[in-house]
Amino acid sequence: MNIDILLKYFPGLTEQQKERFAALDGLYRDWNAKINVISRQDIDALYEKHILHSLSIAKIVQFKPGTEVLDVGTGGGFPGIPLAILYPLADFHLVDSIGKKIKVVQEIADALGLTNVKAEQARVEQLNTSYDFIVSRAVTRLKPFLGWVRYKIHKSGNNDRPNGVLYLKGGDLSEELAEVPDRYRVYDLSDYFDEPFFETKKVIYVPKK
Ligand SMILES: C[S@@+](CC[C@H](N)C(=O)[O-])C[C@H]1O[C@@H](n2cnc3c(N)ncnc32)[C@H](O)[C@@H]1O
């Protein structure tokens, strides 16, 4: 598998970024055979459905050096690992409540030489740390999620958008969005990516109050 689909949307990748993204195919195939972190039928679509989907957050906010990012319920490292490759000067804390998933994430970060990733087995509710941005995909409904992370976002930052939550979601979100305060913005990923996979995909951005 090759990284052409990433280069189509992120043409300015450095050699080191290209090498790291290219290495993910083998790393995820090996680790997924031992510990299931990606559904088996999805592994062939790793670059589109997992890596590019994770990177879609970069179409909404470009993390400046020193930005602190928490990935809640990272599973096998999504969206945190692809974002950490794209933004080597930002710091990423990837947490999941399941230890064996965190083991895979740590092994992959180590194999890539990613020094800006800290992977930790933790429930997000137990963390006492705070961040500029909180990213996530497929963990829970927005309302309880915003409750979990409410006091974990720094007041101010130096990015082009105010600090907040960037949540990757799909499908009809009208019920879910009706439950949360209306300061969110919805970005349709079909505006950024041509592939049918992105037709129903969105980034929900909720700036800190
Ligand atoms: C469906 S998986 C998604 C994994 C990854 N974000 C992705 O999109 O591929 C949801 C993950 O959230 C984790 N999770 C659920 N509740 C959590 C919590 N309160 N704190 C930390 N992790 C949690 C689960 O262990 C699981 O690995």
From TrEMBL:
CDD domains, alphabetized: AdoMet_MTases
Primary site of residence: cytoplasm
Signal sequence segment: none
EC top class named in words: transferase
InterPro entries, per database record: rRNA_ssu_MeTfrase_G, SAM-dependent_MTases_sf
Compartments (UniProt record): Cytoplasm
Known function: Specifically methylates the N7 position of a guanine in 16S rRNA.
Protein name: Ribosomal RNA small subunit methyltransferase G
Organism: Spirosoma agri
